[in-house]
Structures are given as C-alpha cells and as structure tokens.
Write a structure and sequence with these properties.
There is one protein chain. The protein is mainly beta and 159 residues long. 14% of the residues lie in helices and 40% in strands. It contains two helices and nine strands; from the N terminus they run αβββαββββββ. The longest helix has 16 residues. It starts with a helix and ends with a strand.
C-alpha cells in the first residue's frame, strides 16, 4: 500500500512540475478599409524568429508561384525567411484578403520562446511590422495596437 501511495505522489508531482507547452497560437486581427480608388489587397506574413531558426506560419500573397516578384516587398519577412528557400507549403500560403476581421490558428511546434512577427504591406500603400515576444510555456493573451495597415491584434497562447 505504501508503494501505491508513493507512486501516486510521484505522478502527481511530475504532472504539476511539467510546464504545458502550447503547440498552437491563435492570432485575431483586422485589415482596415481604405477609401482610395487604387486599393490593393495587402500581403500578410506571420512568422517566428527564434535563436537561429525562422519559420513562416502564414503567408498571404498574390500568387502561389515561386516567381511572385512582389514577395520582396514584405521586406522583413523576405530578409529573414523568404529569400532562403522554397515558398511554404499550401497549408501556410494563401491568396491576399480584403478588408475584414480574421482569426488564424497557427502551429508553433516545439517552440518555447520566440518573437512572433506580423508584417502587412500594401502596394501603393503603407507597411506595418508588429513584434511580440512569446513564451509558449504559459497560457497568455497579448494585445498589440493597430498600425497603418493592420487593426488591433490579439494573440492567444494556450487555452
């Protein structure tokens, strides 16, 4: 009977001491509407920057071909991720979207501490670059203020 109690106590203490790692994060954001005749839908890139490893989580751009010459306009993403390899898989990329509210759930894998980067660029428009330091070992909610090309952003880590 003492062995059963010891085993139960060990399992309980191991469970309590083990941090819960979020495997996904949810990013809620809006793309504002502009009253301009030459409105172009923005390119949106969301990626992680961690020690020596940068990964694209979402990329909305004009086409799904390697020859999309406008990808270099997403300047920070291009310098950190885009120019170094093939475009991300179809599950990550998509066509540009117009004004509206969006919610995306993104797989962060085993990352624990990283910067989440969000870049929004519009042809003949502006550019917004937002950064949030994330620790996926804690359930957290982050709110980033709106910028020229993106509305308020809410990032949920964990539940």
């Amino acid at each position: 009977m003492n062995k059963q109690l010891l085993l139960a106590a060990f399992i309980a203490s191991a469970t309590i001491a083990t941090p819960v790692l979020a495997k996904e994060i949810t990013v809620d954001f809006s793309l504002p509407e502009f009253s301009t005749q030459d409105y172009n839908k923005p390119y949106v890139a969301i990626w992680t920057e961690a020690q020596g490893k940068n990964d694209t989580l979402l990329l909305w751009h004009l086409t799904k071909r390697d020859e999309d010459k406008w990808l270099v306009d997403i300047r920070r993403w291009w310098r950190k991720v885009g120019r170094y390899g093939d475009l991300p898989a179809d599950g990550v990329t998509g066509a540009t979207k117009g004004p509206g509210e969006y919610s995306v759930t993104l797989d962060i894998g085993e990352l624990t501490e990283f910067n989440l980067m969000i870049e929004v660029v519009r042809e003949d428009g502006g550019r917004s670059l937002l950064r949030q330091k994330i620790n996926s070992q804690k359930n957290q909610k982050y709110t980033l203020e709106a910028d020229a090309e993106i509305g308020n952003v809410t990032i949920n880590v964990g539940k």
